[in-house]
Amino acid sequence: MTETATAAPESQPFQAEVAELLNLMVHSVYSETDIFLRELISNASDACDKLRYEAISAPELITDGAPPVIRIVPDKKAGTLSVVDTGIGMDRQELIDNLGTIARSGTKSFLSRLTEAKDGAGLIGQFGVGFYAAFMVAERIVVTSRRAGSDQVFVWSSSGGSGFEIAPGSEDDAGRIPRGTEIVLHLKEDAKKYLETHEIERIVRAYSDNIQFPIELVPEEGEPRQINSASALWQRPKSELTPEDYKQAYQQIAGAFDEPAMTLHYRAEGRQSYAVLLFAPSAKPFDLFDQARKGKVRLYVRRVFIADDADLLPAYLRFIRGVIDSEDLPLNISREMLQNNPQLAQIRKAVTSRVVSELEALGDKEPEAFAKIWDAFGAVIKEGIWEDFERRDKVLALSRFTTTKGEKRSLKQYAEDIKPNQTEIYYLTGDSVERLKSNPKLESAAARGIEVLLLTDPVDAFWTSAPTDFGGKPLKSLSQGDIDFSLIPLLEDKADDKGADGADAATTVALIKDALGERVSEVRASQRLTSSASCLVAGGDGRDRQLERLLAMQNKGPITKPVLEINMRHPLVAAVATSGDAVADLSLLLLEQAQILDGELPEDPAAFASRLNAMVLRGIVKA
Ligand SMILES: Nc1ncnc2c1ncn2[C@@H]1O[C@H](COP(=O)(O)OP(=O)(O)OP(=O)(O)O)[C@@H](O)[C@H]1O
């Protein structure tokens, strides 16, 4: 970068997403404008955290020795409110990158949902608009910043709209800002109330009291005074804290707007000492299923922020927010060391087990609070059944399922209702509960009152593909392998269904197999069906059909040939042996209707339709 390139102010456009977001902010989808101050203070606090961390290995960055502080300066005459920090600051490129783009993936699709949605406020909460929230109250924003250790100051300014200007700072700017960032908001007429000191104090108390660094209010008259308590809340004893304190700490740490559905605050002493303050949100963030599957629990060492990407919990708990503050780790722990530090591995293990058992206990003691967590994050937690071998039983125990008996059933409840002689836990996977409920594979189970889990999250097809059991009972798919219900008694009112087979099984099976050829691997008499004519299942060792379909969609595995099961008591099946030259059409129809019931298309839909028409006409004409 040459001096001449930076000497004159330069206009740059905002990334399209930023321009769109600003447009939404200005024509406010969000009525609670107060939060702009929380966002700016939170950024200032992050900047102070980063400085403290970088200064561990480069102490010269804090040459003036001044501790990090955040100042709020109202100026009624100028109509400006300034938020000033002595944190890490930004250089020219950082100003351009950080205040001109949004790096988070999924932003585009989120914004289009936001534009369409009536409830903008709820959605904004999932996203966290950060710095840009300031455009709700300001018609113009001027950011002057000096990166710690640099001799250059840069000024970023924008009136919203489509772009911003960037220029080197004046001598006056350089003198005013020895380190860090000054954000000056030129307030809109209807936002002038934010110049009143009581308003500023109210907002700071409500949203930012737990910021660790002192927040000073610099009034137009009188001395500057600190207006937050600036303590690390997680270091305070539980007995001193109220639910309101925890809610505020959660919202501030997580940048969230919802209430925490679970709060976990404790101190571990022993081989290692550390404080833990973790929360489970009650609302889903917009990027929960982001490919990176990163958690955001913040690691501190003796009150100094170290990192928020240290993977302190496994990916299936990535929705948990909060802080772990260690007394024993070295302060100068490098990012590489975070990956394979044995002390940190111990903390990770212990805290993971604690979170999982707390979730389990919450499910028992406060089902309503737990239901909020499960509704928002159940599909993510279930990844743990697949990934966390060590805690598989516990994760299964806290999981909730929609079953043929109801919603939010635990496997413990399932086990309590198990039928005499039932040795397995049955499930079906598919796209929707409604469709699964009408799946013929449920018929025989229903006739015996056997409860079946109806699994519809994509992740279900994966965790069920590993052998899994609960309380000694293996989980078994109703669309896979042999099913033998013969030892489980039929319900009383279904007893008549048991009647003798209506057709000669061996002949019928052979005729149908002959007609279908290579389309199926096997045809056999079904134990699953009572009223439908046929269904498709995977062979004994085959993958569940739903998983096969999902993998095939991603080109990750071949589709194997299914087994066609036929109901020997069904009149259509009974007719096969005597249907003469209609055997082929009838057999294909049995296959095709089974495909349709599984949510698949027949191989040749046009041929299917004409075959069906021909058969119906034949029946009508005969009649
Ligand atoms: N006062 C500041 N000092 C230093 N850097 C800042 C400051 N304010 C903002 N930034 C930089 O600008 C980036 C963008 O800020 P913004 O508030 O839009 O998003 P964020 O803080 O990263 O995310 P979120 O608000 O969702 O937590 C920050 O990540 C940070 O790098």
UniProtKB/TrEMBL annotation:
Gene3D superfamilies for this protein: 3.30.230.80, 3.40.50.11260, Heat shock protein 90, C-terminal domain, Histidine kinase-like ATPase, C-terminal domain
Region (C) location: 550-623
Residue ranges of every copy of the Histidine kinase/HSP90-like ATPase domain listed in the record: 32-191
InterPro entries membership: HATPase_C_sf (IPR036890), HATPase_dom (IPR003594), HSP90_C (IPR037196), Hsp90_fam (IPR001404), Hsp90_N (IPR020575), Ribosomal_Su5_D2-typ_SF (IPR020568)
GO cellular component: cytoplasm
Residues at which ATP binds: 39, 43, 85, 90, 98, 105-106, 126-131, 181, 335
A Pfam family hit: HSP90
GO molecular function: ATP binding; ATP hydrolysis activity; ATP-dependent protein folding chaperone; unfolded protein binding
Keywords: ATP-binding, Chaperone, Cytoplasm, Nucleotide-binding, Stress response
Primary subcellular site in the record, as a coarse category: cytoplasm
Superkingdom of this protein's organism: Bacteria
Keyword DNA repair listed: no
Stored SUPFAM superfamilies: ATPase domain of HSP90 chaperone/DNA topoisomerase II/histidine kinase, HSP90 C-terminal domain, Ribosomal protein S5 domain 2-like
Location(s), subcellular: Cytoplasm
Region (A): 1-335
Function: Molecular chaperone. Has ATPase activity.
PANTHER family: HEAT SHOCK PROTEIN 90 FAMILY MEMBER (PTHR11528)
Protein family (similarity comment): Belongs to the heat shock protein 90 family.
Oligomeric form and interacting partners: Homodimer.
HAMAP family: HSP90
Protein known as: Chaperone protein HtpG
